[in-house]
Amino acid sequence: MTKPVPLLDGQQTVDVPAGAQPDTVLRLGGKGLPPFGGGTRGDLYVRLRVHVPEQLSDRQRRLFERLKATNYSSRKPIEP
Asked: What is the C-alpha to C-alpha distance for residues 4 and 36, in angstroms, rounded to an integer?
């Protein structure tokens, strides 16, 4: 999944790795603040915040329950 991240001079799209957990920190090299007086910019660190839905539709709840019950090593697709 990709997400836009606001920067000091615009924005950049960041690839969020599959299975990323809450509070994972991603480093964007050279996208942070420059040192006082100029020079090469430092790194910008992005902390991931995961939003958990508060309300699910009946279909979403069934899908989550099926996913929970699925053997993760199985390649069989989950049908709605």
From this structure: 27
Confidence of residue 45 (pLDDT cuts 50, 70, 90): very high
Side-chain half-sphere exposure of 11, counting CA atoms within 13 A: 7
Q: Output the CA angle 47-68-19, nearest 5 degrees.
A: 25
The residues pairing with 27 across neighbouring beta strands, listed in sequence order, are 45
| pTM, 2 dp | 0.64
Measure the CA–CA gap between 59 and 70, rounded to whole angstroms.
16
- Token reading at 15: 């690839």
Report helix, strand or coil for 62. helix
Rounded CA-CA distance 33/42 in Å is: 5
Give 71's pLDDT tier (boundaries 50, 70, 90).
Answer: low
Beta partners for 26?
Answer: 46
